[in-house]
Design the sequence.
């Protein structure tokens, strides 16, 4: 079949579909703060745009799917809803881009596709900021406290394709910066893949000031699924189902309104009480977090340890678990003698807001040097 | 000035109103229309100003109130005047949107055609690869060749015996059939070689065509997506900053913040250098 190349070429020349002329970026500067998370990616921008999108992406499996979906790539909830027709990717795990930790992993097809997915996701997040073509784009991307150099390189490489200048910083530090808290504070950022703890003492936190633990939202989901399956034989569960229940009802409190979920048991939806399972799964976060806090506090100057214990900031998606702050404080009291935990406002955007502030405050010459 | 404004408003209304024939209104079942004259409009503007001030608990002297009313009417007149400009811009944008939509549809159609051709070419290539060219596919197969040379020898012997050739005739018939066999064999080998070369050539063409189609497909998909995003996003949302900002030195913790920002920059600079070094090593 002959393709009408001439028409396509003419269209390409005549229309806005051509490569845009190099536009002078003299209209202003758009700052973008980005929190690139395992489960969600959030942006906060200096044009007032704030968006959050699930960190998933999919490409149509074949020509039939491509025609049906009318796009070559889908993101976020839309990708999730159509995942059966897609090569579906969740490119981040434990807060880092999969396969980016070890460069020798990076040559397999799976690794290359995953990296492409991460790049496309990051670039989609930038597009969500609705940037003007004639504005400079300066972005700060938060990544896990102990992300490796390979992972940071992967993020920078992807970001530089769409931003005029980009910097990365530790995610919990970005949260602290956004709260204007630079000293005597411990930040806990509970994500899906990792929980980051960061000790702020007036200077840039170094490796000793930051701990990343793998117990986070994904682990709670796995635990919840296992607990329900143990108590309800024949329950047909997926991780996505239990995640939905967790996000709706998560709590660590002793007293909770009974939680009733409709669980397919051998194909028949059956109402089941999963209150205890939800509570138990959510509580699995507490001990490792307090363990991490204990490490950061005990290795700190003893004259200032009490200040740290009284200023624990709880953020990230996992901070929305009802009663978690109080429970952490209670265990800190038992184990460390005292503990006061505050939950950040807007946990979904706390990291992005902090990254935006950093972007705003960064001197011009620094942005220029990193272009 | 009031008279001038009145005349101006009247003209503006006439110029910027949509003219609808009464016959069309009748067809639409409209039996009566609401008519607003410019005097009434002015009264409405004055009333709106009065109510807005009253809600805010603001009392103005008559002179100042008259001035505010006049400003409000002027602003209204400007808006009416602008309506024409906005309408033209809207029409232009709609025309552009229609053009873009047509181009997008054409690109999408081309994209479909490319997909179909890629699919067909890929199928043809797979088929070609499965098909093995052997001597038995080309011209006469071996069995046919054996039968042919045996018949040839038989017929030659019969002819030569008929001419009284005897044993010598049989030998001659054998030599001729052997020669024929050899020549035919050579011809078959040549045909086989040609057939295989042609198949390789076809495969090569198909592979290159598929490669080119994939490139065109990728480019077309990119163009379609660019058009789609251009329709959706238009010019983008403007940042509140016309210039790069930087830290406000008057803030209470500015010194502390500056130290942290310097450190972030230093770490990022180091990271770039490490990345650059590793890229140079890999290269």
Sequence:
């Amino acid at each position: 079949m002959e393709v009408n190349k001439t028409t396509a070429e003419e269209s390409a020349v005549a229309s806005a579909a051509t490569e845009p002329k190099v536009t002078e970026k003299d209209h202003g500067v758009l700052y973008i703060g980005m929190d690139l998370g395992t489960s969600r990616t959030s942006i906060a921008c200096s044009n007032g745009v704030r968006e959050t999108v699930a960190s998933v992406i999919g490409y149509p499996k074949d020509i039939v799917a491509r025609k049906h979906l009318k796009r070559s790539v889908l993101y976020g909830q839309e990708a999730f809803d159509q995942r059966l027709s897609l090569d579906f990717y969740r490119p981040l795990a434990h807060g880092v881009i999969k396969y980016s930790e070890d460069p020798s992993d990076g040559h397999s097809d799976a690794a290359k596709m995953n990296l492409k997915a991460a790049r496309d996701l990051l670039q989609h997040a930038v597009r969500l900021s609705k940037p003007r073509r004639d504005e400079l784009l300066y972005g700060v991307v938060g990544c896990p406290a102990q992300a490796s150099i390979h992972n940071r390189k992967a993020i920078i490489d992807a970001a530089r394709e769409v931003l005029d200048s980009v910097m990365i910083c530790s995610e919990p530090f970005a949260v602290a910066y956004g709260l204007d808290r630079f000293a005597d504070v411990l930040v806990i950022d509970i994500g899906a893949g990792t929980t980051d703890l960061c000790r702020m003492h007036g200077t840039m936190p170094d490796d000793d000031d930051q701990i990343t633990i793998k117990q986070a939202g994904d682990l709670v989901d796995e635990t919840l699924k296992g607990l329900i399956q143990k108590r309800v034989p024949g329950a047909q569960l997926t991780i996505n189902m239990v995640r939905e229940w967790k996000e709706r009802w998560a709590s660590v409190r002793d007293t909770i309104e009974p939680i009733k979920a409709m669980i397919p048991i051998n194909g028949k939806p059956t109402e089941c009480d999963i209150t205890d399972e939800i509570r138990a799964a959510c509580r699995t976060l507490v001990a490792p977090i307090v363990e991490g806090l204990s490490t950061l506090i005990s290795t700190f100057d003893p004259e200032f340890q009490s200040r740290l214990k009284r200023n624990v900031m709880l953020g990230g998606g996992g901070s929305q678990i009802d009663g978690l702050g109080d429970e952490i404080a209670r265990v800190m009291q038992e184990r460390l003698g005292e503990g006061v935990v505050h939950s950040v406002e807007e946990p979904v955007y706390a990291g992005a807001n902090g990254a935006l502030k950093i972007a705003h405050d960064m001197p011009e010459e620094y942005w220029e040097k990193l272009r | 000035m009031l008279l001038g404004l009145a005349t101006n408003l009247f003209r503006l209304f006439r110029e910027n109103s949509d003219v609808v024939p009464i016959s069309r209104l009748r067809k639409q079942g409209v039996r009566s229309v609401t008519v607003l004259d410019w005097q009434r409009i002015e009264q409405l503007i004055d009333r709106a100003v009065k109510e807005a001030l009253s809600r805010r608990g603001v009392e103005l002297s008559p002179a100042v109130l008259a001035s505010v009313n006049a400003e409000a009417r002027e602003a209204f007149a400007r808006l009416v005047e602008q309506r024409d400009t906005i309408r033209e811009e809207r029409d232009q944008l709609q025309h552009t949107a229609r053009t873009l939509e047509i181009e997008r549809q054409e690109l999408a159609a081309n994209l479909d055609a490319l997909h179909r051709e890629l699919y067909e070419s890929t199928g043809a290539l797979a088929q070609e690869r499965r098909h093995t060219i052997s001597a038995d596919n080309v011209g006469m197969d071996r069995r046919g060749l054996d039968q042919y040379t045996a018949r040839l020898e038989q017929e030659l012997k019969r002819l030569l015996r008929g001419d009284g050739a005897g044993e010598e005739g049989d030998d001659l018939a054998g030599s001729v059939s052997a020669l024929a066999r050899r020549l035919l064999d050579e011809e078959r080998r040549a045909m086989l070689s040609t057939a295989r070369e042609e198949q390789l050539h076809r495969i090569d063409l198909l592979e290159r065509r598929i490669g080119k189609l994939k490139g065109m497909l990728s480019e077309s998909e990119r163009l379609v997506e660019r058009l789609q995003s251009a329709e959706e996003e238009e010019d983008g949302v403007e940042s509140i900053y016309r210039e790069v900002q930087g830290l406000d030195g008057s803030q209470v913790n500015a010194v502390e913040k500056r130290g942290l920002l310097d450190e972030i920059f230093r770490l990022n600079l180091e990271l770039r250098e490490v990345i650059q070094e590793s890229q140079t090593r890999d290269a």
Observations:
- The mean pLDDT of chain B is 79.
- The radius of gyration of chain B is 45 Å.
- Residues 62-130 of chain B form the longest helix (69 residues).
- Chain B has seven helices and no strands.
